[in-house]
Amino acid sequence: MAAKRSGAPSKRSLRTRPQPVLEPTGEPPLSRERIVATAVELLDAQGLDGLTMRGLAERLGSGVMSLYWHVDNKEDVFDLALDSVLEYRGPPQMAESQDWRADIVHMLEDWRASMLRHSWSASLLPRRALGSNILSRLELLSKTLSKAGVADTDLNVAIWSLWNYVMGATITRASFDLSDDDMAAAQQRLTGERYTTIERSRLLLDNDWDGAFRKGLDFLLDGLAPR
Amino acid sequence: MAAKRSGAPSKRSLRTRPQPVLEPTGEPPLSRERIVATAVELLDAQGLDGLTMRGLAERLGSGVMSLYWHVDNKEDVFDLALDSVLEYRGPPQMAESQDWRADIVHMLEDWRASMLRHSWSASLLPRRALGSNILSRLELLSKTLSKAGVADTDLNVAIWSLWNYVMGATITRASFDLSDDDMAAAQQRLTGERYTTIERSRLLLDNDWDGAFRKGLDFLLDGLAPR
DNA sequence: CATCGTATGGTACATTGTACTAGTCAAGCG
DNA sequence: CGCTTGACTAGTACAATGTACCATACGATG
């Protein structure tokens, strides 16, 4: 029997699989990768609540409990799905870029775009730990800022500021995306005397989210740029 | 019977209650307010998953289904609990402040503090609409920035930037708060060659969250300040 | 051949939100 | 006074869900 409740890793094999003669046709064997990929498909199609272990198993053509060999629990699936969606391939040109600001903007815009492509990921992020793809992005951010001349004492603050901004913007955008009726309800609350300013500025109706993200990011980078 | 599935409001009475002779002792009657207050207590004590309709009813000394007279569903409870926690009493001094920056910092720090006092609120925010307390804060922010001289064309971007920053910071902080083991796991992933920079800067171990929040906010305000 | 690790999956259970339904009580009206 | 109505409370029941427990199969190794 598999080791119950091991400490850190899951219970599945750590050695490489011994090639089970590769099945001729039919369903390929279960694997972490296949589970995660299918979970992402399901999440994209049905949203956060749409993902159930039963549904996942059905889509994989397997029994429900078989999943638990490869995965600790549903939370684990969420963790893996989230990180799998956040890979980053780097800025367009291969050579070292001269423009650190452009590099950062590119990476952060890609980050946001990746999450918005899978809107469930935004609701997931706040409560999970950092997967390797996220860490890679942070590492890149850190390197770039450091090379750009940001003082070491300001570095962590700068990184977290950018992180905060991107996360806040993405989460907000994703949640407003889902509920047009909530927007309408909120907008209706505005009419009256209490919220004149935001009503006049049409804060909630301005839907140039991409432009606003970019402009706000520029403001933030203005503040962060080494003087 | 009460009108099933009304459009906008819930099914509970909209007129004032006709004073049921006020019960001498025992449990006070159910009310939206009592339900929300108790829900907040439970959320504080047990976290997001700890709130169940059954638990809530038990704590209120009522039947489970009685709750549904005052509340549409569990989501509704979450909405109400969230907004109830975000009231803002304004900056310390009563007279008009000269220092718009201090006013904004005060409000935003209070916002963050309010949410961190109820850590479940951070996970709730991204996916819900804007309650009246949130709108009031946005209105205040808008007025202050406008009075400070931020151009109308930049106003919405400025507001959203600050919102994004605060939300990102708070959500991040709250989620890291919950899981020390996740932190440790992430930190362990760092050792190696891939993440040298963030390992060296001790990004994940720096726990002066309050200071970092304040400093990053200053950077952002530097960028936003009218030139 | 026996044993063991890898892997699959059926059954069963506790827990959840909430639909349905029946009830209580007070106010208003004939 | 009896009857109706509407505000409110609550028990029962159900469907959906995550997953513990158990039985099983199969290839490799002794």
Brief summary:
The structure is a homodimer of 227-residue chains. With 227 residues, chain A is mainly alpha-helical.
Task: Name a few traits of the molecule.
homodimer; 227 residues; mainly alpha; Arc Repressor Mutant, subunit A; Tetracycline Repressor, domain 2; 2 domains; disordered N terminus; DNA-binding; transcription cis-regulatory region binding (chains A, B); transcription (chains A, B); HTH-type_TetR-like_transc_reg (chains A, B); transcription regulation (chains A, B)
What does this structure look like?
Chain A has 227 residues and is mainly alpha-helical. Chain A folds into two domains: 26-85, Homeodomain-like (Arc Repressor Mutant, subunit A, Orthogonal Bundle), CATH 1.10.10.60; 94-224, Tetracycline Repressor, domain 2, CATH 1.10.357.10. Chain A is 60% helix and 0% strand. In chain A, helix 8 (152-178) packs antiparallel against helix 11. The longest helix of chain A has 27 residues, at 152-178. At the A-B interface, helix 7, helix 8, helix 9, helix 10 and helix 11 of A face helix 7, helix 8, helix 9, helix 10 and helix 11 of B. The structure holds a DNA duplex (30 and 30 nucleotides).
What is the 3D shape of chain A? flat
Q: Pair with the most extensive interface?
A: A-B, 65 and 65 residues
Give the termini separation of chain A: 62 Å
The averaged pLDDT of chain A comes out at: 85
Low-confidence stretches of chain A: 1-9, 14-25
Biggest sheet record of chain A: none
Q: Domains counted in the coordinates of chain A: how many?
A: 2
Number of helices of chain A: 11
What is the oligomeric state here?
A: homodimer
Helix content of chain A: 55-70%
Structural class of chain A: mainly alpha
The SSE order of chain A reads HHHHHHHHHHH
Question: Which fold does the CATH topology of the largest domain in chain A refer to?
Answer: Tetracycline Repressor, domain 2
Tell me the strand percentage band of chain A.
under 5%
Radius of gyration of chain A: 22 Å
CATH class of the largest domain in chain A: Mainly Alpha
CATH superfamily of the largest domain in chain A: Tetracycline Repressor, domain 2
CATH architectural grouping of the largest domain in chain A: Orthogonal Bundle
